[in-house]
Design a protein that fits this description.
Blueprint: H1 3-14, E1 18-21, H2 24-31, E2 39-43, E3 47-51, H3 56-62, E4 67-70, H4 75-85, E5 90-94, H5 100-110, E6 114-118, H6 121-126, H7 131-152, H8 161-174, E7 179-180, E8 185-188, E9 208-214, E10 216-218, E11 221-222, E12 225-231, H9 236-255, H10 262-275, E13 287-289, E14 296-300, E15 313-316, E16 319-322, E17 326-329, E18 332-336, E19 341-343
Parallel strand pairs: 1-5, 3-4, 5-6
Antiparallel strand pairs: 1-2, 2-3, 7-10, 8-9, 9-12, 10-11, 13-14, 15-18, 16-17, 18-19
Length: about 350
Amino acid sequence: MNKLEKVREAMNESGVDGILITNPTNRRYMSGFTGSEGVLLISQNEAKIIVDFRYFSQVKDEVSDFEIVESSRQLLKQTTVEANNMKIKKLGYEEDDLTCSLYKKYKESLGMIELCPVSGLIEKVRMVKTAEECQSLREAAAIADDAFNHILGYIHEGITEKEIATEMEFYMRKKGAESSSFDMIVVSGTRTALPHGKPTDKKVEKGDMITLDFGALYQGYRSDITRTIAVGEPSDQLKEAYQIVLDAQLSCIASIRPGMKCGEVDKGARDPIERSGYGDYFGHGTGHGIGLDIHEGPSVSGNSEEVLQPGMVITIEPGIYIPDVGGVRIEDDVLITDEGYEILTKSSKELIIL
C-alpha cells in the first residue's frame, strides 16, 4: 500500500470521509511539499494541495500525487470550496496541530461539513518507513558517523564545549547536511550527568568524560547518535558505568526483532543497568522513533504497547547519570527489518580515551 492508501484506510477506521492536513511535517510527508504554508485535503477519491501565489512554482516542482490548487483567496476559504467540491461530509482535522482560534474559523467557514478531531492518524502511518526514507536515514547516519570520526582529531584539553559543537555543525554541513538534526548536546566533566545539557564555555579538562549527542538533517530526515569519550584517563567509577551502559545497549539491540513490544525493548536495556545497582541513575526511556522529526513514534519506554514492525527506525540510548560525578550515554539508530535489525550508526562504541 502507498501512503495515500494507508491514510484512506485509517480514515475509514476513524469514521471520516476526508482529512485536512495542516501539520507542516505531515504535509511534507504526504505530498513532498517543503513550503512553509499550505493545506492538504484527502478524500477517498481525491487528494488536493492548496497553496497561495508564493508557492505556485515550488509546488509544481515538488508535488506529483496531489491535484494542485493555486488559490488567489485565503487558504481557509479555498479549503471550504474544495471540501464541498469533493463532497466531504465528515472532515477529520489534526487536533494536535490546529489551534482553537483556527478551529473556530474553519468550523464557521465549513458550515454543514462536520469537523471531527483525529489524533496521530498520519503519524501512525509515518512510523513505518519506505525504502526511500530508509536510504535518507542511512545517509543522515553516515554524515553523523563521519562527523564523529572528524571530531576525535579536533578535541583536546582546553577546548570548550561550544567550540566542539560549532565544529561538528560546520563539518556536517560541509558533508551535505542541511543542518544538525537538533540542538546538539556537548557536555564534559561532571556536566555529563545532565542528560540534555547544552554546550557552554566550559573547557575540557584532563580526565573529563565528554558526551556528544548529535545528528545530521539530510533530505528532511534526521539521524541521532550519542557517543561518550574521555580526554585523559577517567575515574574507575565512570569507566565502570561506561561498560555497564555499553553492555546493556549491545544486549538490548541484539534482542530486537519484529513483533516485539517496545516496552520489552526498554526492559532489555533497563534490567542490566538495574542489576548493576545503577537503576536509579537511568531515568529516561530507552529510545524513540526518528524520521522527519527527531522524536516521533514509536516510543521505546517501559509502558509502550507499540509493536515493532519492519521499516520502523528507533534509537537505543541507555544511560547512567551520577550527580556531581558524571554520566555516560551510548545511542544508535536501528532499522527494524524482516529478519531482525540493521544498525544505521556505525561509529565505534569502545571507550575512546584521547
